[in-house]
Fold these 3 entries.
Entry 1:
Amino acid sequence: MPYEYQCQQCKARSPERHDRRTDAELEQEEHRASEHGGLAPAAGDGVRQVHDAARGDGCLPSGSFLFVLFLIVALVSNCWGR
Ligand SMILES: [Zn+2]
């Protein structure tokens, strides 16, 4: 999963996600240097892992949801047929 840097104080976030944690931490250092004079922001900041939307992980829950919906519809229509 990719990494993302987020600064709570500036409400700022990485423009793009990083494959390696060290890249995101580098961005953290650069942001602190340019926006906070090299200090850590009082409101907090940090690197976190984010879901890779492009990989299609988000499709799995909706796919199984549709399957359950199909089973319910099949069951109900079977009951009505009798
Ligand atoms: Zn900041």
Entry 2:
Amino acid sequence: MLEGYCVKCKAKKPISEAVEEVMKNGRKAVKGKCPTCEAVMFKILGGKATPAAASPAAEAAETSLDAAAPTGTGSTPA
Ligand SMILES: [Zn+2]
């Protein structure tokens, strides 16, 4: 069963009477109803899924590698 977010219940609900359809931009979506309040639910499939368990704490520390290139080429090959 697909889950969607009901804006009326402000909770995740299994989408009732889910019907899969393709939008104009080619993305798949599921249209259905909230089983509790019967509000229309719409869930976009495909694309980037953004789960609630996203951890923003993963900060990529920028390491500037200031590696000085050795320019010790004094001997010219004959
Ligand atoms: Zn609802």
Entry 3:
Amino acid sequence: MIKILDARKKQMYEKGKGDFDLACEKTSLAGSVSQRACVFCGSRVVLYPVADALHLIHGPVGCAAYTWDIRGSLSSGPELHRLSFSTDLREQEVIYGGEKKLYAALTELIAAYKPKAAFVYATCIIGLIGDDVQAVCAKVQTESGIPVIPVHSEGFRGSKKDGYKAACEALFRLIGKDEITPVPKQSINILGDFNLAGETWIIKEYYRQMGVEVVSCITGDGRVDEISRSHHASLNVVQCSGSMTHLAKMMEDTYGIPFKRVSYFGIEDTADALYTVARYFDDPLLLRNTEELVRTEVDRIYPEVQRYRTFLENKKAAIYVGGAFKAFSLVKALRHLGIQTAIVGSQTGNREDYEYLKEICDEGTIIVDDTNPLELSKFMLEKDVDLLIGGVKERPIAYKLGVAFCDHNHERKLALAGFEGMLNFCQEVYSSIMSPVWQFSPARINSNLHSKWHRGSKDEAPEAYNQYVEDHPQAGTRDAANEGDMMNANWNKHIIDKEIEGERNERNNKTAVC
Ligand code: SF4
């Protein structure tokens, strides 16, 4: 039996049970093993996609383990962001200070890699020993002629959300440096997409087709020069509101650029995002282009989404993500697949976010703020979910419980934004839920999952099944007791895959003929 800590009870709510008064935006409870990361981690995820900048971590080498290899972000050009540098502070610097080492590392790295700018991240130990990072950065900036920006991201200063704020403040020091390069009136900045798997390119292509110029992406596939002139854009379009609203507000206050919060996940939210931008510029041609784009894309993907739905209808999902905005889109996207959201939570949601989540979720849905692995496991078992959508820290929870998993965080390798991303999402959810492997998970062996596999297809097409068994001897298992079940499960997946592949080929052929 899993017990909820008394001090955590106010941060969870089951829709339909009592008044809604969810506590949120609190520091994590000691001992509850929050899934939130440290301040440095928050600033790193926001800043590191700036691909032509140097990223130097001032602290012990362990903090620098948090590299591009763990959290990827694609670049269409330079890839300096893939290298992780650390001042590797040791006992001597902890006693006598690390400023000399920081100065030496910065000058050596700038000479070797010739970056367009440098970000220097202060970690916990810097907050304790009191190095004057600001002064060292200012000195190197004067000597090198490039912006050298301190990031005040000492890990213990708060949570990951405070790291987002530190990153926004660092980025703000870059903005406004380029006053010369002209920017057209119908122009935007994309804030809060990090191009983890090529999403920024999908979104930019939509705006290109609509006739809107993207001045800068902050920070997916980011470039220092583009960020320096981003203050000339007419509108900021903020996707990851948790991380980027602070920057959007600073740009609004200083440069008068309004901002709109959007999401590019799912069909409605992607369409809404594009229409929001089109309506802002109030240009008939732009609106027509947007309508055309949305119609074509929805016509293209919707039949396939419906097809996936036939296999996924009535499944149940748990969602636990960083920002609540993503959770909104996921609830809606899952609904297209006939999947009910049984549990939904975020690390950084605020009162307004959770109120909206309550509005869009079904009765009985558990809404949870800043949860931990034990709570999540308890709710997943109670609700008997088929799928968990989360990030790298949630993945083992799903696998240990024998539940399908969809990575919707910084570690993903599949673009999930835009209309194309919706199809990828469906494919990912389908592949994971329908995988035959779950029936052999010890945690699920006694559950009703086993029965969900028996769709009767073996009996409906015995000849094809026998042929499949002959052609795929590896699809079974050496365990004689499970041989038939495993083969049947693989067979089920095989025919479903074939059906979907057949439909896709047919549609591609039609497109080719047109
Ligand atoms: S909590 Fe401190 S020591 Fe740990 S990774 Fe973050 S900055 Fe480094």
